[in-house]
Amino acid sequence: MQAPAVLPNLDAASLSPRAAAYFQNVFQARYAELQQQIPQTPLAVILWGPGPGSLALYQKRAQIRDELRLREHAAFLAEELPPLENLALLPRLQQLARAAAADLVVVLVATLNEFVSARDFSADAVVHSKLIIFAPDATTLPEYRAALSELARYENVKAFHYPDDLTSCHLRAMVLEKLSDLQIAKWRATKTFAVSEGAKV
């Protein structure tokens, strides 16, 4: 885990004694608390994509899952999740329900069908902001363009170069960046809810 950022030394002469005391006793205490709380905000992450038949992409999904678990997130490959009993006959509805319940859905695309499926799910207002879709260079081909044009408006499609980006840490870094944004958003939402609930007491 990254070491917390350190504030620059305060030039006490630039502040009044009261302002300097407030900065040191209140602001810095809050800042230190945020550095601890935000990175520890847990998230639920589902990873969609191909199985062992596309070995390199499957291994990358598992690698990202394992990295997120080391950071104490609830990360799962989609096929690891048990069926929802009351939706056993509706697999697409199960996928949609899981995606809506998750904080982040990471999609590694191997085929056009997977890309179109991701586009279909992204049409849901709840799900689209949670998706990050890694699409291969092949998405520049004409058959991908219709699907890509609908997804691009959400800015959640990331092109990757096969196989270079799979052997590097590029995909992992993009997932972690998205995760950091979501941790901030979830932390804010949790704090807002706690304040509103406190006001009702």
Give the topology, please.
Layout: H1 17-37, E1 44-48, H2 55-70, E2 74-77, H3 91-101, E3 104-108, H4 112-122, H5 125-128, E4 131-136, H6 142-152, E5 157-160, H7 164-167, H8 170-200
Parallel strand pairs: 1-2, 1-3, 3-4, 4-5
Helix pairs in contact: 4-6
Characterization of this structure:
With 201 residues, the chain is an alpha/beta fold. The chain has one domain (43-186): Rossmann fold, CATH 3.40.50. The chain has 8 helices and 5 strands, in the order H-E-H-E-H-E-H-H-E-H-E-H-H. It has helices at 17-37, 55-70, 91-101, 112-122, 125-128, 142-152, 164-167, 170-200, and strands at 44-48, 74-77, 104-108, 131-136, 157-160. It has a 5-stranded parallel beta sheet, with helices on both faces. The longest helix has 31 residues, at 170-200. The protein is elongated.
Short description:
54% of the residues lie in helices and 12% in strands. By secondary structure, it is an alpha/beta fold. The chain has one domain: 3-Layer(aba) Sandwich (Rossmann fold), CATH 3.40.50.
Which short descriptors sum up this protein?
5-stranded parallel beta sheet; 201 residues; Rossmann fold; disordered N terminus; 12% strand
